[in-house]
Amino acid sequence: MLDKGWNPRLPYNTLKKDLVDINPKASSFELILHKARHHAKRCMQYSFKYAEESWDKSHKPPDFKIGDLVLVSTLNFNKVKRPKKLKDSFSGPFMIKALHRPNAVRLELTGELMSKHPAFPVSLIKPCSSSDKELFPSRNKPPLEIPPLEEGEEK
């Protein structure tokens, strides 16, 4: 039932079926319970439909393809070599190797994330936008400077 989570024995279950006199209050109680259950079922169906429609309005399915470059959220990566305060919120870019389901992708991981499992939900990845010289002519990428090695360090 609605408030108990189980179906209690109703009076008509315990009475013999061939008994002529059934208490009118027991049959009206059964009718009230039946109407309450029917109303609750309709309300739940309406609620599920409303939630599905509101979700579908604001969400579109991801349009990733094999070979796309994406960034991975580092929110759940605890053992990254940097302190948490200095950790980038996204790492990458990584190439999509396979599409598992509509909501999961397999990436080709490199660097310090190579030890992680390569399958990620699409909620943790975002497309990587490249810096195109034609689109952004005034954007200058500074040259990458490699610091000199100290004594005792290996390459």
String of helices and strands: HHEEEEE
Shape-level CATH architecture of one domain: Roll
What is the CATH fold-level name of one domain?
A: SH3 type barrels
- CATH class division of one domain: Mainly Beta
Low-confidence parts: none
How do the strands of the widest beta sheet line up side by side?
4-3-2-1-5
Largest sheet: 5 strands, antiparallel
Terminal Cα span: 70 Å
Q: What's the β-strand tally?
A: 5
Supply the helix-strand structural class.
alpha+beta
Please tell me about this protein's structure.
- Among the domains are: 43 residues; 59 residues, Roll (SH3 type barrels).
- The longest helix is centred in the N-terminal third of the chain and has 35 residues.
- The model has no long low-confidence stretch (mean pLDDT 79).
- By secondary structure, it is an alpha+beta fold.
- The chain has a five-stranded antiparallel sheet, with no helix packed on it.
- It has two helices and five strands, in the order ααβββββ.
- The radius of gyration is 31 Å and the shape is elongated.
- Helices cover 25% and strands 18% of the residues.
- Strand 2 and strand 3 form a beta hairpin.
